[in-house]
């Protein structure tokens, strides 16, 4: 996974497609699911398929969130092109659903296309380990509003009620050896300091990147996931000190013990910078 910012665009709003591509986001997510009314699904599919196949991404990733259920295969087959980065699968509750999408992509000869699974129910949460090991899975996501509704929990501004689910997603991703999960959207695009603080908490929990619903949110997400000069300097210093240590452990500039586990975190910081 190379993207940090993911900007949603409704699939039936073609006047916003090019704007999203030029917004500075790492990835555009064209939404055929929740953002599109039922009677607009066919039109949105056609609009998205045409634009994805004809646009010039210029390094921006292009993802499409398809619909669940009976029309999912139709969505996938329609949007496949050389420009498509991958598919966001909503309401995933089993590895078999991912395997079915993988089969369609294979039939379409879209070997380059990746899959991100959105887990939005209690059933999906319990199936996370198997979903994380499914074919083509690049990274996982939580549909937090849907999950909270399914579980019957009330989420306040701290979102501490979702800590257990977020932790399970990070753990399942690490255990499967896939990229860290991408954090869910926030409807808050007016109080940007609060949004940035929330994004920072998610980064500390192990998420890498965040989905956005408004271009105003992009700079905050990028600021959170881009290491500062101090963080880069500290990470490099840790690796240098450990490399020069006579044994497998060393001491950092503050006199604290450092070992391979600390070095792994330092390497992750440097990877974020790249």
UniProtKB/TrEMBL annotation:
HpcH/HpaI aldolase/citrate lyase domain boundaries: 6-215
Pfam families given in the database record: HpcH_HpaI
Necessary cofactors: Mg(2+)
Assigned keywords, A-Z: Lyase, Magnesium, Metal-binding
Highest taxon of source: Bacteria
Recorded GO MF terms: lyase activity
PANTHER family xref list: HPCH_HPAI ALDOLASE_CITRATE LYASE DOMAIN-CONTAINING PROTEIN, LYASE BETA SUBUNIT, PUTATIVE (AFU_ORTHOLOGUE AFUA_4G13030)-RELATED
Name used for this protein in its record: CoA ester lyase
Taxonomic lineage: Bacteria, Bacillati, Actinomycetota, Actinomycetes, Mycobacteriales
């Amino acid at each position: 996974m190379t993207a940090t910012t993911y900007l949603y665009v409704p699939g039936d709003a073609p006047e916003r497609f090019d704007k999203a591509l030029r917004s500075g986001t790492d990835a555009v997510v064209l939404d055929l699911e929740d953002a599109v009314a039922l009677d607009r699904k066919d039109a949105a599919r056609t609009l998205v398929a045409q634009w994805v196949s004809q646009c010039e991404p210029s390094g921006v990733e292009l993802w499409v969130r398809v619909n669940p259920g009976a029309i999912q295969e139709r969505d996938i087959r329609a949007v496949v092109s050389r420009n498509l980065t991958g598919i966001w699968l909503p309401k995933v509750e089993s590895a078999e659903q991912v395997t079915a999408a993988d089969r369609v992509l294979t039939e379409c000869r879209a070997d380059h296309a990746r899959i991100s699974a959105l887990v939005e129910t209690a059933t999906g949460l319990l199936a996370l380990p198997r979903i994380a090991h499914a074919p083509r899975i690049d990274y996982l996501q939580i549909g937090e509003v849907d999950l909270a509704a399914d579980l019957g929990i009330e989420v306040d501004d701290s979102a501490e009620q979702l800590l257990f689910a977020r932790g399970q997603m990070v753990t399942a991703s690490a255990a499967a050896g896939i990229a860290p999960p991408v954090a869910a959207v926030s409807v808050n695009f007016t109080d940007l300091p609060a949004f940035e603080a929330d994004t920072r908490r998610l980064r500390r929990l192990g998420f890498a990147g965040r989905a956005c619903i408004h271009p105003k949110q992009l700079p905050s997400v990028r600021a959170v996931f881009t290491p500062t000069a101090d963080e880069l300097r500290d990470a490099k210093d840790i690796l240098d000190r450990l490399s020069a240590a006579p044994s497998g452990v060393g001491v950092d500039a503050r006199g604290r013990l450092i070992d391979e586990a600390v070095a792994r975190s330092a390497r992750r910081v440097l990877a974020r910078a790249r």
